[in-house]
């Protein structure tokens, strides 16, 4: 009988987690809520105002700490984007903390997509902030897949995607 895989979620794993998103302009709170809950179902949605109207634009930041990352990590595995996730999640990694963004337009349909650095995509982003003493090891474990037995990967290695989002070619 095969052992079940260890499922990480970040909570109770010595990580500080903060998830946040900014509602601005024509952002519809119900759609932003749907995006958040599709990827982070335990995110506590604050009471929100009516939809934006002419002269009354959205202007709020929704933020919460200690939100489990289990659904997010499960989607990475299901979508088979673990190497991309490793690169995106560690692009701003400094040894004990990192932050990365997820596109809200993809999230609303249960998909995880990462914007390119410097992009300000239509539909906004969900920003994930992670901090912890062994964060690098945790991210590598959370994004591990069997293919890494044949092609090992690590944080910011020579196989990481370029800053333009293009994949590195393995030799």
Overview of the structural elements:
The protein has one domain (16-149): 50s Ribosomal Protein L5, Chain: A (2-Layer Sandwich), CATH 3.30.1440.10. The radius of gyration is 17 Å and the shape is globular. The model has no long low-confidence stretch (mean pLDDT 85). The chain has a four-stranded antiparallel sheet. The chain has helices at 29-39, 70-79, 82-90, 104-107, 135-142; strands at residues 16-25, 58-65, 97-103, 125-131. The protein has 171 residues and is an alpha+beta fold.
Task: Put the structure in a nutshell.
It contains 5 helices and 4 strands, in the order βαβααβαβα. The chain is α+β, with helices and mostly antiparallel strands and 171 residues long.
Output the radius of gyration. 17 Å
SS-based class = alpha+beta
* Arithmetic mean pLDDT: 85
Number of domains: 1
Which labels suit this protein?
alpha+beta, globular, 5 helices, 4-stranded antiparallel sheet, 50s Ribosomal Protein L5, Chain: A, 4 strands
Topology diagram in text:
Elements: E1 16-25, H1 29-39, E2 58-65, H2 70-79, H3 82-90, E3 97-103, H4 104-107, E4 125-131, H5 135-142
Antiparallel strand pairs: 1-2, 1-4, 3-4
């Amino acid at each position: 009988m095969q052992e079940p895989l260890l499922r990480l979620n970040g909570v109770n794993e010595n990580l500080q987690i903060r998830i946040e998103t900014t509602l601005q302009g024509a952002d519809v709170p119900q759609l932003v809520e749907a995006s958040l809950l599709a990827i982070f179902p335990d995110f506590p949605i604050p009471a929100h105002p009516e939809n934006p109207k002419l002269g009354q634009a959205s202007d709020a930041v929704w933020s919460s700490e200690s939100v489990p990352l289990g659904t997010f990590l499960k989607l990475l595995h299901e979508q088979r984007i673990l190497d991309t996730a490793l690169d995106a999640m560690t692009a701003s990694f400094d040894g004990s903390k990192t932050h990365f963004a997820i596109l809200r337009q993809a999230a609303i349909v249960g998909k995880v997509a990462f914007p390119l650095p410097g992009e300000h995509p239509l539909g906004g982003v969900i920003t994930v902030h992670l901090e912890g003493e062994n964060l690098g090891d945790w991210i590598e474990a959370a994004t591990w897949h069997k293919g890494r037995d044949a092609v090992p990967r690590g944080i910011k290695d020579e196989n990481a995607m370029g800053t333009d989002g293009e994949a590195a070619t393995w030799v």
